[in-house]
């Protein structure tokens, strides 16, 4: 089947150059050369497989044409290759934002032209096939029509297959359970949530619906340090009144059902105001122990019930015993007295043996206060230590970002505002990993804001207001690194600065 390539340019020589190269390299293609003014009429009659747009310098009419093609539903999916001569970086970026698929570098090389055209056509065919498959899965109910995610009914089965495949290929992957809770008990807008999640994850990642408020996100070829970025982006984009909690497990050798169950188990321990809980090997053990205790407890309740019922029956029967039956039992006991004595002596010997055994075990415990751990226990402790170390690194990376994107900009913002308003105000700011602070002083009225990070997961903010060498107010607020963001710190500083200004006089 022939492919149609439309070349659009205002320069005749450029169109001929591109056409000659294509005809030489790809004889099966049909090539059309069009001026910008003729192109619109051409598109009403024909749908090319690929469009090559040629522009000189930063030609704005090319950008307008790209946008027009992409805004029309009939032509939006046609791939566009831009061939810009002497264009600036901003122009090329704007062209990609408008919707081009690829670009050719100047001067034009025949092998690059052939390669780009072939790749673009193949990519477009793959996307059309993928879209058709996607629509088919929607019709079957495997994919949810509202969100475009795998449905609640079929999602787990699909995730199980993905995880099995990643294990076979030895790939790193993580599975995240995300729970969104609206603070005012209003149903979440599924379409809005879907758009946020789609723009947050990569193309190779998979999202599956768990229920109305929860989603599984399968992060392929990812380790735990990559999960935090996804979680942080979701928190940043989601509605402020919606809390985001998450549990994430790095896929190892565990069976799929245990992975799903441990995510449910772990997300319950995540804070309601939003936190990410990383599953440790010990969580699998705790979960299984919890289930075992629950089963044992249920068994005990059943046994107790039976025993109590038997006890009641025995009590009723005991009241009905006749004196002659009791006499017979006592007579039988007298006849069997020697045999019972032997049994009693045997029982005493067993008790002595058991006592000696317990004493030996106690002596062994005193000699070896630290008994050798099983290989399984050693492996679990080793894995826990490794994950704890990775968590600390994760928290440090998170704090480094918060330092640059939250703490330093906000401290500078409020210090600058106050210095513009009060010319005599002295402001001293420092933002470092070990210690950050903002010290303000005007007319011996001082405000000290000190931010201390414990190198694990807690940010402590100490605030002190002094006037005439006397402390007026002092307060401390703690934040978890993952819960600390621009909005919350901004509220803290704004409230504090307003209080500080109550004591200041105008210049």
Looking at the structure, what is the overall shape? flat
The number of distinct helices, counting runs of at least 4 residues, comes to 14
Task: Give the distance, in angstroms, between the N- and C-terminal Cα atoms.
Answer: 81 Å
Structural class: alpha/beta
Q: Are there runs of 5+ residues with pLDDT below 50, and where?
A: 298-307, 317-323, 336-341
* The CATH fourth-level homologous superfamily of the largest domain: Response regulator
Number of domains: 4
Architecture of the largest domain in CATH?
Answer: 3-Layer(aba) Sandwich
Strand order of the largest sheet: 2-1-3-4-5
Mean pLDDT: 79
Q: How much strand? A: 15-25%
Q: Strand count, sense and closure of the main sheet? A: 5 strands, parallel
* Strand runs, count: 15
What is the CATH C-level name of the largest domain?
A: Alpha Beta
- Helix percent band: 40-55%
Please compute the radius of gyration using only Cα atoms.
37 Å
CATH topology annotation of the largest domain: Rossmann fold
Structural write-up:
This protein is α/β, with parallel strands linked by helices and 507 residues long. The chain has four domains: 4-132, Rossmann fold, CATH 3.40.50; 155-279, Reverse transcriptase/Diguanylate cyclase domain (Alpha-Beta Plaits, 2-Layer Sandwich); 289-314; 398-501. Helices cover 54% and strands 20% of the residues. It has helices spanning 12-25, 36-45, 60-71, 89-98, 110-140, 155-168, 190-200, 224-237, 256-267, 281-319, 323-335, 337-367, 375-421, 486-501; strands spanning 4-8, 30-34, 50-56, 80-85, 102-103, 173-182, 206-209, 214-220, 242-250, 276-278, 426-431, 435-442, 445-453, 458-467, 470-480. It has a five-stranded parallel β-sheet with strand order 2-1-3-4-5, sandwiched between helices. Strands 7-8-6-9-10 form a five-stranded mixed β-sheet, with helices on both faces. The longest helix is centred in the C-terminal third of the chain and has 47 residues, at 375-421. Residues 298-307, 317-323 and 336-341 have low confidence and may be disordered.
């Amino acid at each position: 089947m022939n492919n149609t390539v439309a070349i659009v340019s205002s320069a005749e020589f450029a169109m001929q150059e591109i056409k000659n190269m294509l005809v030489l390299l790809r004889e099966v293609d049909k090539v059309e050369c069009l001026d910008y003014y003729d192109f619109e009429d051409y598109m009403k009659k024909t749908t090319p497989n690929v469009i090559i747009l040629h522009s000189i310098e930063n030609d704005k009419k090319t950008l307008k044409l790209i946008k027009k093609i992409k805004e029309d539903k009939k032509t939006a999916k046609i791939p566009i290759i831009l061939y810009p001569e002497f264009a600036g970086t901003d122009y090329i970026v704007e062209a990609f934002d408008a919707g081009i698929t690829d670009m050719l570098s100047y001067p034009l090389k025949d092998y690059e032209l052939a390669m780009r055209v072939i790749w673009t056509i193949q990519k477009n065919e793959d996307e059309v096939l993928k879209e058709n498959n996607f629509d088919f899965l929607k019709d079957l109910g495997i994919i949810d029509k509202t969100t475009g995610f795998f449905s609640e009914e079929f999602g787990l089965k699909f995730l199980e297959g993905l995880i099995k495949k990643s294990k076979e290929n030895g790939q790193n992957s993580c599975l995240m359970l995300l729970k969104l809770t609206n603070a005012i008990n209003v149903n979440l807008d599924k379409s809005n949530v879907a758009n946020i999640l789609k723009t947050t994850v990569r193309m190779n990642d998979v999202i599956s619906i768990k229920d109305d408020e929860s989603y599984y996100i399968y992060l392929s070829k990812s380790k735990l340090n990559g999960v935090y970025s996804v979680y942080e982006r979701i928190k940043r984009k989601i509605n402020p009144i919606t809390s985001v909690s998450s549990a994430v497990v790095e896929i190892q050798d565990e069976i799929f059902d245990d992975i799903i169950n441990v995510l449910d188990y772990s997300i319950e321990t995540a804070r309601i105001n939003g936190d990410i809980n990383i599953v440790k090997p010990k969580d699998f053990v705790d979960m299984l122990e919890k289930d075992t205790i629950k089963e044992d407890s249920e068994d005990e309740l059943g046994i107790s019930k039976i025993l109590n019922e038997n006890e009641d029956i025995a009590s009723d029967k005991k009241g009905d015993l006749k004196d002659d039956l009791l006499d017979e039992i006592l007579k039988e006991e007298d006849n069997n007295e020697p045999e019972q004595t032997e049994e009693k002596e045997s029982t005493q010997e067993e008790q002595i043996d058991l006592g000696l055994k317990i004493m030996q075990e106690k002596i062994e415990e005193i000699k070896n206060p630290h008994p050798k751990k099983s290989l399984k226990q050693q492996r679990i402790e080793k894995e826990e230590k490794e994950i704890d170390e990775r968590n600390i690194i994760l928290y440090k990376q998170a704090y480094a970002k918060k330092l640059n994107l939250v703490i330093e900009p906000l401290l500078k913002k409020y210090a600058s505002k106050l210095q513009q308003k009060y010319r005599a105000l002295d402001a001293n700011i420092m933002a470092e990993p070990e210690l950050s602070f903002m010290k303000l002083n005007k007319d011996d009225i001082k405000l000290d804001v000190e931010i201390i990070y414990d190198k694990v997961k807690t940010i402590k903010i100490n605030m002190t207001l002094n006037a005439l060498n006397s402390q007026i107010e002092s307060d401390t607020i703690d934040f978890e690194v993952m819960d600390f963001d621009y909005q919350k710190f901004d509220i803290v500083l704004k409230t504090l600065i307003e209080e500080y200004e109550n004591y200041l006089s105008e210049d």
